Amino acid sequence: MTPHERRTWLTGSQVFVRGRRWRLAGTIAGEDCDALRLIALGASAAAPSLTILVPFDRPTVRQNATAIKVLRPRRWLHELDRVLANLHPFGALSETARARIRLIAYQLEPALAVLRDGATRLLIADAVGLGKTIQAGVLLAELHASNDGFRAIVIVPAGLREQWAAELRSRLNLAAAVVDAAWLRHALADRPPDVNPWSLPGIYVASHDFVKRAEALKPLEDVTWDLAIVDEAHHASLGTDRRAAIDAIASRSLRVVLLTATPPRDPLEFQALCRIGREGESGESPALFARQRADVESSVPRRSTVLCVTPSPAEARMHALLDRYTKEVWKEARARDDEGARLASIVLRKRALSSAGSLAASVDRRLTLLVSPGAEQIALPLDDRDEDPLDDDVPASALAVPGLADGRRERRWLSAIAEAARSAARAETKVAYLLRLLRRVREPVIVFTEYRDTLLRLQRHVSATGRPVVVLHGGMDAIERSRVPRAFDSGALTLLATDAAAEGLNLQRHCRVVVHFELPWNPARLEQRAGRVDRIGQTRRVHEIALVASSTAERLVIAPLTIKASQSGEPVGRTPMLGALTESRVAAAVMAGISELRKSVATPRPPRSTVSVEAIREAERLEHVRALSRRSPAIREAAAIRDAPFITRLTRNRANDGYLARARASLVLLYSIALESSDGRRAHEEILALAVPPMAKCSPSRRMELRALFEPDSRASGAIGQVVEDKCREIAGRVKAADHRRRQRLEERSRAIDTIKRSAARVLVQLALFSRRRRQDAERDPAPAPVETQNPPPLEIRARLIAGVVIDGRRR
Q: By three-state DSSP, how is residue 54 classified?
């Protein structure tokens, strides 16, 4: 195609190619061809958009009628509905109207912050159950629809990969690839050696621990991502391999979205979370969205109950022996600054509060490891297994460290404790109490416990009563985990789960009762557990029940700390006090036998983004678009705006006389005002309505001016033209300023990515060369690169008359 043979492609026009009709959304001009981006009319999930090359494809442009269209009022409204349904205001969420989600204003705020304000880094720290997945998915869908060659990566805990892919597919019509080691091997085998498997366009869902592997991270660092989403971002703790890998990927992404329901309260950890993806960029904090359920909807308050269970004499003896042993270990370990010995004593105390059977198993295992340290192989840093921050099994490394200097004396202690635990396990009072509670609650119940072996013991006892039960724990693979929620919703009355099930699952459909078999030493997990049922969509009061063993550290230390935090006036899991109760601090309180902690200072938060009003308006607009589509299934099969205007005539009568009298107009004109760039990119479009006063006393020139408005290819002139021109200047100034700000931030982000030279993959492979403290210090004080700004490409504004209403002054 030579340059003089080219035609001008008008954005919004309707074309016919490949056997169906399309709407032209944008063009990119090349030397020998043009790329046309088309949106299917009546778009379906199978083929919503298409990019073709001209002249290799030869589209036919539909020729609109040049004469004015005079329509009946009903038909006129139908045509106007078509125009309104295809409008695209600045930063509009066009794809969200077709998504199978409930339109809630606050869930649109993060996407608007990116598309309108130009934010490149977001931290969504809403309470559990407020739809963080949907909020990230809305942004993902909008960016995917508007960018050819779009690449996005979603980094989630391993157990949530399939759920994320299913949610994106079922709710947002997005196909995502779930990636793991097998996927990477196949991708490398199927592609040429010089092709990066991550470089192909698409949406990839990977786990936190898969991306930190050197073989996966190195090619990941060679790709610039359009969007990186990190779910449960608080797991990327300062100084960990997981943190280093996620930060490396996020730093190479044009936009970063961090999701967490439990942001860390420790100032250093919170600042480290906010710095994820900031390498090479200025020190701005991410836009923060932290809403409570009470902030966004009225809901029935959760009812929390603590039930005290009196231990049997055998259980009391077991706790007394263990208490004396662990205090001696803690005393000696503190004197020699032995963190490993203190960790071992903490594990045993937690296991005892979980169940006597769990303690017996752990003590026997510890005895074996102390006698024969090589009996179980401790995992190496480069082991080929994924880590799990919510693992429900105890690693050998936590039990293999000696606690007392006198090994023979320590083994005697442990043998006595093991014998007491086996005796107590024959009739555990908590198990009996739980079975009585389940008999009284004649509806679905979720029972949470921290350890897998406790769960398996409970499964045997509950199944023996004849009550249908399903289990969910960290030892199950992804396919097994995906079946459990369906089985629970299909009729099982009891779900026994470890904390591996406390993140990401939606179980509010049939359940409202949560039982904590023991209180976790990290109280933030309480909110994660209850959040499985206390979330949007729950219409009944949620009941949360905690079983607490009397006369133990659980009753004397952990329960008072948790209750004090929950009574501070804020929802559980969102208070400074509860945020301060980290597992290490609770462990210190338990070992010291105290029930108070020093007052902590709340972490300063970055300012919230203020787009709530815009989000409400956008939600209303999308609801209107949905209503128009429901009214006429073919509403989107129209051209964006006709070349010639369409008009109708209204005559005063009893039905509309009052409205027309208030209008005080003889003519209403509707103009389309659009801003487009030279390459066809449409930045903004809106409808301007002008009411023209009655023409009874108009001069002949005035009447000719109004009549000329409806002639083909006419332009507004005179007073009407001045009004339109003033409005165009106002709209152009506002939209150009917002578009300049958005594009400038994106260009700054792109230049920051170009300055990154450090390879996290190389650092992780050479971990032996670096100390943990040195890596933490480097992460606390990153050196930002200087940033230069450029002006965005110019936008041109155009105004076109599209419709009119002629009001007949005669009363009929």
A: strand
